[in-house]
Amino acid sequence: MVDSIVILDFGSQYTQLIARRVRELHVFSEIVAWDAPAAKVLALHPRGFILSGGPASVYDENAPFLPDYVLKAEIPVLGICYGMHAMTLALGGKVSAGGVREYGLAEIDVKNENALLPLSHQKVWMSHGDRVDALPAGFEPLASSSNGILAGMSRADKGWYAVQFHPEVHHTERGKEIVQNFVYQICRCQPGWTAQNIIDSSIQAIRAKVGEQKVIAAVSGGVDSSVATALVQKAIGPQLSTIFIDTGLLREGEVEQLQIAFEETFDAKLTTINAGQRYFSALAGISEPEKKRKVIGELFIRLFEEQAARVGNPPFLVQGTIYPDVVESSGTAFGKADRIKSHHNVGGLPADMKFSLIEPLRELFKDEVRLIGEALGLPDTLVWRQPFPGPGLAVRCLGEVTPDRVSRLRKADAIFTSELNQAGLLGRPTREDARQLSQAFAVLLPVQSVGVMGDQRTYQETIALRAVTTEDFMTADWAMLPADLLARVSSRIVNEVAGVNRVVYDITSKPPATIEWE
Ligand code: XMP
Question: Which of 83, 143, 156, 249 could serve as 151's disulfide partner, Cβ 3.0–4.6 Å?
Fold first, then answer.
């Protein structure tokens, strides 16, 4: 069993980042709700707890609090922001609101030698109005901000540490070092969470769950479903039937590329089902985004049920759900992060579904999924392709989804991506090459506007271009694409795609927008 850290979620927007920072150190981390049952949490056998931040104030009515078992577990605890306040309260210290509020970048001085914070003056990210006024018994101060607010405290004999700021946010200059000190020095975790390790334990878990039974897999063309299927393929080989539903909502050339990639990589045969007609009929007249997702999710399952019947009704279905899908669709904790959209993989599934799901990537972040894909020997074109939503072009075709409109969108998208590829902007993202885009695509808007082509008045639809950079798809920045590239793409789209006379560029980050338009 690999060493792990449990993160108690008090509702912070940064909770997932904490988990990522820990996993980057090759130590498994799991997020649980602050009020999850003690027995369930302790069964994870963590080597330490991290208490996340959160939007509440500890004296609020019904404010989340630190459950007893955490401090009784006799393992190290790191409280972050609200986590620091909850810890202080649980141990008899005092928290107060108001006074000098600190949001955003702040500067702190670390004065006392300690195992957590490197000794120096450093910039950190603060995001809370409350602060600790009186330390709990046995604690010593570690750092204070330039406004005199207590920025860190510890009781080293117990392994209890807390900071007012957010070490998980990259604006905190020495944040990675701080998380590393906690995980390696204080909790004494060994870095066992590696791609090979994840693969081995997934394979074992899949075999244990499935036994001799049959499994059906859904590949959608995206990285997640491909890697999930590859893992299951590796675990149970001939017990798996892999099906690819051509929904008619895929990008240009995608069907062919996927068939080639799969048949070259796997011994398994890929059964392609041509279902475009059925999708377009099911989607006729529907413009509402959530309705589209629901209809697509349902039809997807129905088609699988039909196919499953052909291969003897396997009880299991593989899905490429990844960790951010789970959290974004349902929330894990206090306040349950608002439901933004029902992801195809999770929320869109009908209640009467007859399959049990195998979701081997459910605990993984995207970058971890890619590393596993590589370790499994999947081709780069598949592993490093940009993410593509399960509902496909339907959620990029705003308004009604018709064959004509989808084909218009597909052509515009192909022009945009091929120009980006030629400019070398859609390759494998690396930390060194900040120009690399994480995702770029076209969106068709049901907005007609007046134009002039030749001497003719036109009244046609609009293409919006979207290109973003992001580390984790939870937040994203719009990309400052070169003006000459945008000019070339725009002119090619209006000239080559019938029915489009205007191209606009989306300059909104996430938040407040999402990456997809629906
Ligand atoms: P948003 O639009 O929520 O997207 O900022 C975040 C990332 O998720 C992808 N996405 C999906 N992936 N099924 C998926 O597998 C879906 O229903 C879905 N919706 C959005 C999106 O492309 C982006 O990478």
Answer: 143
* pLDDT attached to residue 434: 66
C-alpha 349/C-alpha 35 separation (Å) is: 27
Answer whether 429's CB lies under 8 Å from 420's CB.
Answer: no
335: confidence class by pLDDT, cuts 50, 70, 90: very low
Q: Give the residue with greater pLDDT, 239 vs 351.
A: 239
Pick from 343, 441, 468 the residue to mutate for probing ligand 1's pocket: most ligand atoms within 8 Å of its CB.
343
Given a cut of 50, whether residue 316 has pLDDT beyond it is yes
Whole-angstrom distance, CA of residue 191 vs CA of residue 228? 24
How far is Cα 300 from Cα 302, in angstroms, rounded to an integer? Answer: 6
User: Rounded to an integer, what distance in angstroms lies between the CA atom of residue 251 and that of residue 496?
Assistant: 17
Token couple for 410: 């597909």
Interatomic CA distance for residues 232 and 202, integer angstroms? 9
Of 272-281, 307-316, 484-493, least confident by mean pLDDT is 307-316
The residues that bridge with 450 in the sheet, in sequence order, are: 459
Catalytic position from the list 102, 168, 419, 516: 168
Q: Note whether 242 and 270 are within 8 A (CB).
A: yes
Question: What residues have CB less than 8 Å from 489, skipping those under 6 apart?
Answer: 415, 416, 419, 465, 503
Element (H, E) at 217: strand 215-219
Tokens, residue 391: 């509902």
Q: d(Cα 268, Cα 202) in Å, to the nearest integer?
A: 19
Q: 415 in helix, strand or coil? A: helix
Mode of pairing for the β-strands spanning 77-80 and 160-163 = parallel
pTM exceeding the 0.70 threshold for the entire prediction: yes
Q: Ligand 1 centre and the CA of 221: distance in Å?
A: 14
